[in-house]
Amino acid sequence: MSQQSRARANAGKSRRRQNRSKICDCCGADVMFCWQCRCGFSMCQSCMYENQWGMTCNGITWECPDCGAQNGYGNQ
Ligand SMILES: [Zn+2]
Ligand SMILES: [Zn+2]
């Protein structure tokens, strides 16, 4: 007797798509995507692009101006 077939009955039914816009801490713009630090600081892509010369030295990580933590581009 196996009861495993019922375990996944409720999985995969989340079709909720909320428009979660974010506020850029740098320019205050309402954007769909922000780079985010674990401290809560967020920066929109255009600000990141403009400040990239001062935020990153290798193009792989960026330094949070708020707490100084290193955050990676791509996966958070
Ligand atoms: Zn911005
Ligand atoms: Zn930070």
Sum up the structure in keywords.
about 80 residues, alpha+beta, two-stranded antiparallel ribbon, binds zinc ion
- How would you state the average pLDDT, rounded? 82
Task: List segments where confidence is low: pLDDT < 50 over at least 5 consecutive residues.
Answer: none
Order of helices and strands: EEEEHEE
What is the topology, as strand order, of the major beta sheet? 1-2
The largest pleated sheet is described as: 2 strands, antiparallel
Overview of the molecule:
- With 76 residues, this protein is an alpha+beta fold.
- Helix content is 14%, strand content 21%.
- It has a single domain (19-72), classed as Herpes Virus-1.
- The chain is built from one helix and six strands, in the order ββββαββ.
- The chain has a two-stranded antiparallel sheet.
- Strand 5 (61-63) and strand 6 form a beta hairpin.
- The radius of gyration is 19 Å and the shape is extended.
- The model has no long low-confidence stretch (mean pLDDT 82).
